[in-house]
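Worked problem 6 (solution included).
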Amino acid sequence: SHLLASSFPTGESDGYSDFSDSVGTEGPAKDILLVQQLRVELIDKDQKLNAATRQHELDMEEQRTLRDDQAYERQMERQHYEQTLQNIQDEYEGLQTKLVMEVESLRAKQHEIESQVPRLKQELAISKQQLQQLSLSDVGYRELVKTPEDQLSLRDFVRVRVYEEVRECREESATSQANMELMRERERIAARAVSYTHLTLPTKRIV
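Solution. The predicted structure is:
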């Protein structure tokens, strides 16, 4: 309206009719059309700006969501790594504790064995002495064997049995040695016979 108002003169002069004649009805119509075109363009630009703003906001929200997802994934990976590391550390500490306990147990067993060594040596010496006391001569055996078993002491009974067992072993050993010597003698006789036969056999003369 301001544009339209400024387009016309304010005084009454001869030029007014000329201006009106020259402009006619085309001037205001063009201005109105121009204003409408400008208004449509402004509305279109405003809609495009709003759409661009909304798209920008959506893009920013998507980026924020993506960053949040990435941060969450990194956090989960870090937690998984820390948990794995903690599990390994716990397992290592458990194995170390078990190893220490096993070493302590071995040391205790070793100490127990070492403490028993003197007693075992003493028992071994006593056993050797007792075995020596169980030995019996031929004369002693003949004297004890005349005594009825129910009148023998436990020691003498054991001595008699040990003597008899040892005597049997000695007899078997002597028999085995005699058999071996007999076999060797037979082998020597056979070898001499083969040698004598080879020497006495006539040799075939080659013509």
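Discussion: The CA atoms of residues 7 and 26 lie 13 Å apart.
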